[in-house]
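Dear colleague,

Following up on yesterday's call, I've attached the two folding results inline so they're easy to grep. Please treat them as preliminary; we haven't cross-checked anything against experimental data yet. The first protein's sequence and structure tokens come first.
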Amino acid sequence: MKTHLPNLLTFGNLSLGILAIISVFSEDYTLSSILIILAAFMDRFDGQLARKLDVESEIGKQLDSLSDLISFGVAPAILIWSYSLQTFGFIGIIIIVIFAISGAYRLAKFNVTDFAGTFSGIPITLAGGIVALVTLYSINYYMHDYVVLIIVPLLSYSMVSKKIHLKKK
């Protein structure tokens, strides 16, 4: 049973990402944002639990990446497009597609790279969480759509940048 506990958290992360997408369809942007943030907390603990229980596996690593792509790549992209970037038409679509592609590339690169303690780019979890927080801020206060038009590409670049180095936990 202990070997499956981290994967259960990963499935929880994925489930919350799917529910976040469904919430966007209902135009419940606040709930969608909160679900993405909750998914980030689940994602934070699945890897830690796997290491603590000494049950890390390749399938767990791949499952985590696929779940992260949905919860922190696709769900935030759909959320921010529906809430803000659709006003920019085709440019808004390009921006969210690049965001999801950058996240997918970052995850794939992370999975195949042997590195000694540091890795380039911000995690997709952080980028997706920031998009959710930007949306929450925009709902409760006000953030001009042009600010979002700048933030999302910067997050995309930050995920794949070789100039940003983070230490592995």
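Below is the second protein, in the same order (sequence, then structure):
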Amino acid sequence: MLDDIKPFPNLLNLHQTVVDAFCELAESTISTTGRFRVSLSGGSTPKRIYEMLAQRDLSWQHIHWFWGDERNVPHDHRDSNFLMVRKALLDHVPVPEANVHPVPVNVDDPKAAAQQYEATLRTYFEGDTFPQWDLALLGMGDDAHTASLFPQTDALNESERWFVENWVEKFDAFRYTLTAPAINSAAQSWFLIAGENKQDALAKVFSNQHEPQLYPSQLVTPSRWFICADAIA
């Protein structure tokens, strides 16, 4: 299946294509429904996309921003996904504060924070079995994780919850993450993948070896793959 995907020749081309597609989808959705709900990804590839989006003229007052995963650190910590998005995008565009929905990090009680964010999502998407994102942006790590669904972690087995705290042994820390069903409920979900360090993981995700406990990105069925040529062996 990987052979069927046409990779982007360079990262700039990938970034520009994603930004154009994001703007087109956002404006089309807003014209139809009056709003656009997006689940954001952390990472260096999405960061540049957010910086480029900040230069566009969008209907910012109708876009709602959520986070697909977060680190268990305060919002002003350099590792915070919220801080990254705020600095790259939200500080530069007229987004109403009510449209920004960050994870309420609680360093000492991540379970309570995850439950609080799930309650926020269930209130916002009241009546839905799982959150009906208009778009979920996703990255993939060199261990084939996506969001904070890491190999051989408890969150991979969750089928009812929307958002959970997830203990990641290799970091000796909790991460916050959407569950796989809460990602797959998106009307559109896009994987954004670049870098030579992703080659092995990407090949395994696309292989006939279906082992989502080892390769969590296999749990997601994206509508589009945006893959840079350097990520393909």
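For the second protein, one point worth flagging: The helical segments are 11-33, 44-53, 81-88, 110-124, 180-184, 199-205.

Best wishes,
A.L.
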